[in-house]
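Researcher: Re-running this chain for the archive, since the previous output was lost when a drive failed. Same request as before.
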Amino acid sequence: MKISNLLHPELINLNLQSKRKQDVLQELVDVLDEAGKITSNEEFYQSILKREEKSTTGVGNEVAIPHAKSEVVKEPTIVFAKSEEGIEYESFDDQPAKLLFMIAVPEKKSDEHLQVLAQLSRKLMHEEFREALLAANDEEKVLEVIKDYE
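Model: Regenerated structure tokens:
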């Protein structure tokens, strides 16, 4: 499954307003909700928080990949968001997160989210990929960068 199949222009936020981790997570869940990808904003938000309690999804290199499986998710979806200043995200390397990918997968979709997570993680290990995403100034450019690295 390609990342570009799960990410569409309406699922991209290039100007996060929130500064706190919990608020950013809610902002990303709101994007899913507004795009009609979930049936319950609150329930999916709680699923994301529960996953964060296990271990931070701030993977380092200014990247966070919050993710959850939930019965309220209609179809596998990715939200991409960017913060110029960075969000204090309790990342493994203590760096603020500037690039955030929220992965939402239906409960019944076995471990599909793990495949997407692994794919995304491999791409994000490349500094030039991260830099290209940071430089992207519109939704189409973000999608172009992602497709170029698939």
